[in-house]
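Our consortium's second objective concerns turning raw sequence data into structural hypotheses that experimental partners can test. To show how far this objective has progressed, the report includes one record in full. It was chosen at random from the queue rather than selected for favorable results. The single chain below, 639 residues long, was entered without modification.
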Amino acid sequence: MSLRATYRLQLGTDLDFEAARALVPYLRDLGISHLYLSPSFRARPGSTHGYDVIDPNSLAGDLRALAGAGLDVILDIVPNHMAVSDENPYWRDPGLRQRFFDIDPETGRHRRFFDIDHLAGVRQEDPEVFAETHRLALRLVREGLVYGLRIDHPDGLADPAGYLRRLRAEGVERIWVEKILSPGERLRDWPVEGTVGYEFLNDATALFVDPAGEAALTGLYGDSRSFRDLALEAKLEQVRSTFAPEVERLRRLNDSPDLEPALASLPVYRSYIPPVEQADLDALAGNPLRDVLMRGGEFTTRFQQTTPAVMAKGVEDTAFYRYNRLLALNEVGGDPSRFGISVEEFHRGCLERPPRALLTTQTHDTKRSGDVRARIGALAGMAGEWVEQVRRWRELDPPDPNEAYLIFQTLVGAWPLELERLEAYVQKALREAKVNTNWVKPDTEYERRVRDWCRRLYSNRAFLGELESFAERVAHAGERSALGQTLLKLTSRGVPDIYQGDELWALSLVDPDNRRPVDWDRRRADLAELRAGAAPQRDTIKLFLIERALALRARRPEAFAGAYTPLEAGEACCAYLRGEVILAATAVRPEGHTARLELPAGRWHDVLTGDELELRGRVPFERLAMPDWGVALLERVDG
C-alpha cells in the first residue's frame, strides 16, 4: 500500500498486538495506510513503552497476524540501548556483556541512555553486534512484514551515519530517524526518508502564535534573563551533576578545564565528526574545544555521544520547566525565544523538508498534546486579557509565582482537568525544573505546600468561575488553531502522522498523562456517523477533517506527490496548492478571513462542505473557508 498517513500506537499494558489488530478496520476507514508501532521486541516485564528491550530477536506478540490485517507496519526500533537485566541474555553473560555493551574498562560502568542507569548503551559500531541485534528486524523487513523502520535516538550512537548506511546496505529502504533538529538546523545527508516530525510540529505551533503578544507576555513572565542564558545554566548544572560519570570518562581522554562549558555550550544536539562539514563548523563556532574536536578520535566520538543527553536533560527536562513565558513554545526541538514565525518562514520549512518526512503535532514524548499546545499558543492573541487574569490569580498567594504561572497556563490549556491529573503533572514539572524540589532529593514538604495550594484552587468557587469562563474562550480560539495545524499536517509536503486518539480533541499533558487508555468505541461510533452523512459537531470536527483529507490523499495521490506552491495571502492566512489541483488554506490570525487568494480559474469541489464552486482571479478566503473554523480544502475537478 502506498504511504498516505501513519497512525502511532503505543503498545503496552493496555494495548497489545491483538487489540491493535482489532483497530485495523477502524483505522482503514479513517484513511490510515500504515500502522506506526512503538518498540515491539521483548522488553522488561511490565514495560509500558517498550524502549527497555531485553531481547531484540524476540517479538512481544504476533506481528505476522497484525501485519496481515490490512495495514502496512512501520516499526520503532531501539539500537542505542538495551535494558540492564539478567533477563537480557546479552547482559546476563559476562562475555557477551563486554562485547555488546559500551563498558568503561577502568570503572566497569556502562554508557547510559541519558541519565537512566538501567538502560545500557550498545556498541552498534561493531559489525558483529549490529548483525546480531538486527537479525529479527532485518528479517521482518525482508519478508515484507515491516514496511520501514523508525530509529530511536540515533544521536546516541558512535557513528549515526555509518549505522544508517549499514541498514540501507542490508536492504532497509525506508527509514525515519528520531533526530531532533534545532530551528534552522538541516538534516544531514543520510540514507533516510526524513525525521519523525518535531521540526514541523514547532513550525506549525509558532505559525499560530501572534507576535503582537510577545511584549505583554514577556512582562508577565517577569524574568529578564534570555532563554539562551537560562538554558546554558541548566545544561551546566546537568554536566556538573547528573552527567558527572560521563564527564569523568571524557576527562581521562582530555582533561581540559574547558570540558564542562564545551559540553554545555553546543547550540544543537550534536556534531557528526568525521567528516567535518559546514554544519559542524557552525555548531562548534566559539566552542573552547573546537580544534580538539575537529581532529576526531575517541574523545570526539564520546563527546558527541554525550551532548545529546546534556541537551535533552538540560533544556527539554529542566529549562523548559523554568522558562514559562509561553508554554506552547516549550516543545521537543523547539526554541521558546522564537515567538512566532511568518507565513513565509513556514513555507520555507515545508519546501526544504524531505518529501516523505513524517509530519506530527503530538508524540509520546511531547510535553503536551497538540490541542493543549494550540490553546496555550492562542493566549498570545489575547495577551492583554490574559495578563489581567493572571495578575488577579497571582493574588491567591502561590508558593512560587513562576511555578504558579506554569500551573495557570496548564489549567487554561487542558481544562477541564481532573485534580488528580494536575497534581501528578505539577509534581513532575516541579521536579524537572529542579528549583524548589527535584527527583534525586525531593522536598516533600514543599511539594505538599504546592499540592495543597492546587487543591485550594479547586475548592475556590470564585477562581473556578473565572477559570471556566476564560478557559472556554481560549478553547474556541485554540480549537481553530489546532484544526488549522491539523489541516497543514494533512496536506503539507510530507507524510501526516496521527498519535493514538488524537483524531478527537485530546487534552493531554506530558507522559504518562498522554499514554492514558483511548476510548476506541467512541471513535468508531463517531467515525461511522460521519461516514453515514452526519454533520460534524464541535467535538467531531477534527475527526471529520482527518477523514475527508485522507480520503482526498487516497483519491489524488499524484497531487500530493507533486509540487507545493505557496500562495500569497498576507500574514494572517497560510495557503498553498498541491500539484496545482489541491488548495489548502487556514487563517492563522482572526483577520485571516479578509485575505484574498489568486487561484487557477476553473471548477473546484469543496472537500469539507461538498459545494461546487466556479472560481477565477482573486477569491476572498472568507468565501472558501468552512464556517466558524477558518480552514479550506478544495479540489479542482476540471483540470
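The partners drew two points from this record. The first helix runs from residue 17 to 30. The chain has a mean pLDDT of 97. Both points have been shared with the crystallography group to help prioritize constructs.
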